[in-house]
Design brief:
It is a single chain. By secondary structure, the chain is an alpha+beta fold. It has one domain: Hypothetical upf0131 protein ytfp (Roll). The strands form three sheets. A four-stranded antiparallel β-sheet has the order 4-1-5-6, with no helix packed on it.
């Protein structure tokens, strides 16, 4: 995932979007990232008072939802929320969220445990660690502050360094 992860199906990026009370958390099981016995973790938005999630807002056509609904089929729901754009304006936007009722929802865990989980997961979509490092890079490219993702990335880097003997 990069800042332009949707560019192939939704090429019109419009702005940095900030969603309120919906922070990104790596709390969703990622079936595409691993065999059923070792699913990875991917990001989902969860409800949390006074939290902010930074990301890219896209202007999409209705037919793009067909593709997005397939991509986000692992129990995600479409949810309307207010997005504050980098030009200072606000607009209603649609996001995909996972709730605790979702069978693939893994929920919160300490960041070091999430990093261990991610380090051990890989599958048809590639290593789960690549998803995390690309997500962190995309957030940095947006100059987004996301301590949850960055702390998991740091723990993952430490695990990889130990694996390769570069601690």
């Amino acid at each position: 995932m990069t800042v332009s992860a949707l560019d192939d199906i939704a090429p019109e990026r419009i702005s940095l979007g900030l969603g309120t009370a919906l922070p990104l958390r790596l709390g969703q099981m990622a079936i595409p990232y691993a065999p059923a016995e070792a699913p990875g973790r991917v990001g989902t938005l969860i409800r949390e008072q006074d939290a902010i999630c930074a990301g890219m807002a896209y202007l999409i056509s209705p037919q793009v939802f067909d593709q997005l609904d397939i991509r986000e089929k692992n129990g995600y729901l479409r949810f309307a929320t207010e997005l504050c754009l980098d030009d200072g304006s606000c607009a209603e936007g649609l996001v995909y969220i996972a709730t605790e009722e979702n069978a693939a929802f893994l929920g919160p865990a300490p960041e070091h445990e999430i990093a261990r989980h991610i380090a051990a997961s890989a599958g048809p979509s590639g290593p789960n660690r690549d998803y995390l490092t690309q997500l962190a890079a995309a957030l940095r490219e947006l100059e987004a502050h996301d301590p949850h993702v960055y702390e998991i990335e740091q723990h993952l880097a430490e695990l990889i360094a130990r694996e390769t003997g570069k601690s």
